[in-house]
Amino acid sequence: MKYIVFTLTVAVAVIVMFFAFNTKSKSYAVINGHSFDIEMAITDSQKSKGLAKYEKIPESFGMLFLFGKADYYSFWMKNMKFPIDIIYINDNKIVDIFKNVPNPKSKSEVPKTIKPSLPSDKVLEINAGLSDKYNFKRGDSVRINPAP
């Protein structure tokens, strides 16, 4: 009987640990009913690398850069391998969109610096052309889940 109780206890512990370590809560952003699985860029290292670590990304994927306060954060396309749309967000509303920002054609090309016209506390990067495809515009609401 002790053996059965011990075996059941170990089995339950293994199952609990499996789900605890293998279940990631998905983060996503929703704009105008269009959902993007997002990777959060929170640390300076994550923000510095950004999407440049990818050769390409799926249409339903983006990277969300989180900042502690609203300000005029600059972005550039250093080491990027594909063009993107850069969406500046403040208080969960789009404040600026830079569409079809091109990636550098060579390593020696100095990428253009992008800076918003209004302060933002978040920036969402998605594949180029999706802002037009889904008709995103200034003032659109952005829902982030789970909320940062």
Describe this protein's structure:
- The protein is α+β, with helices and mostly antiparallel strands and 148 residues long.
- The chain has one domain: Jelly Rolls (Sandwich), CATH 2.60.120.1140.
- Helices cover 21% and strands 37% of the residues.
- The strands form 2 sheets. A 7-stranded mixed β-sheet has the order 6-5-8-3-2-1-9. Strands 4-7 form a two-stranded antiparallel ribbon.
- A hairpin with a 2-residue loop joins strand 1 and strand 2.
- About 10% of the residues have low confidence.
List the helices and strands and how they pair.
Layout: H1 2-22, E1 28-31, E2 34-41, H2 44-49, E3 61-71, E4 75-76, E5 84-90, E6 93-101, E7 113-114, E8 120-127, H3 130-133, E9 142-145
Parallel strand pairs: 2-3
Antiparallel strand pairs: 1-2, 1-9, 3-8, 4-7, 5-6, 5-8
Descriptors:
single chain; 148 residues; alpha+beta; Jelly Rolls; two-stranded antiparallel sheet
Alpha plus pi helix count:
3
Order of helices and strands: HEEHEEEEEEHE
CATH class category: Mainly Beta
Shape: globular
* Beta-strand content estimate: 35-45%
Mind telling me which CATH architecture this is?
Sandwich
The CATH superfamily bears the name Protein of unknown function DUF192
Q: Could you name the ranges where pLDDT drops below 50 across 5 or more consecutive residues?
A: 10-24
Mean residue pLDDT? 86
Helix share bin: 10-25%
- Strand order within the widest beta sheet: 6-5-8-3-2-1-9
Largest sheet: 7 strands, mixed
Q: What does the oligomeric state look like here?
A: single chain
- What name is given to the CATH topology? Jelly Rolls
Number of domains: 1
Structural class: alpha+beta
- The counted number of beta strands is 9
The gyration radius over C-alpha positions equals 20 Å
Distance between the termini: 49 Å
